[in-house]
Amino acid sequence: MTQHIAVVTGGSRGLGKNAALKLAAKGIGIILTYNNNADDAQQVVREIEQKGVKATALQLNVGDSASFPAFTRAVQEQLKTVWQRETFDYLLNNAGIGINASFADTTEAQFDQLVNIHFKGPFFLTQSLLPLMKNGGRILNVSSGLARFCQPGYAAYAAMKGAMEVLTRYQAKELGARGISVNIIAPGAIETDFGGGMVRDNEQINQHIAAQTALGRVGLPDDIGDAIAALLSDELHWMNAQRIEVSGGMFL
């Protein structure tokens, strides 16, 4: 059986790192991207290789769409040299940042940065990588619970995630002819360094979220990494065009 390969954006830390490790634990080869911390990325590669799975790391700023053709060529080269393959199987559009600003105070620069990273980036990166994706492959986009419920300070961020949820359905509709399924996962609040580590490090915020979550605690990276690995499993190949919230039941 040919080994599956996943491209994971933002795979050097946080949820992307956890997802890459969980996918690798299932024997899936990993091409992960990092924005500026090559050392962290190479450490993740070493952890994956210790599992007996091939992995490589490539630099990518998902907010810079002009760089996507060169990145796609780099992916093509890695597929040939590391895996002797011309295609990969899974794309996880995970890379992102958090900006906390009220609607009234959000600047145009902040808005543009969020558009470029969370919507324009995944839109055109996926488009650029399509020729390298195997027919019957899988795309998993990343949304947020904030696209369903509202917390002050995330109007622009959540709007981009809402756009990704609509795009996911259109991608599923248009890529179905190639047998490619497209879904989107919406994590709730997770204890990572995302957004300055606010959920992880601020005990008051952590307790508030836990009290509003049916399962009584804030999410952990493993909760999301395990869900991503499950959503990209062969058993769920028939699930398509779906938004799957993985939040422990926040704000029900």
UniProtKB/TrEMBL annotation:
Q: What molecular function does GO assign, one term? A: oxidoreductase activity
Q: Which SUPFAM superfamilies is this protein grouped with?
A: NAD(P)-binding Rossmann-fold domains (SSF51735)
According to the lineage, what is the superkingdom? Bacteria
Fetch the InterPro entries from UniProt: NAD(P)-bd_dom_sf, SDR_fam
Q: Does the keyword Nucleotide-binding apply?
A: no
Does the keyword Zinc belong to this entry? no
| Coiled-coil residue windows | none
Keyword annotations from UniProtKB, A to Z: NADP, Oxidoreductase
Please report which protein family the annotation says this sequence is part of.
Belongs to the short-chain dehydrogenases/reductases (SDR) family.
Q: What is this protein called?
A: NAD(P)-dependent dehydrogenase, short-chain alcohol dehydrogenase family
Species of the source: Kosakonia oryzendophytica
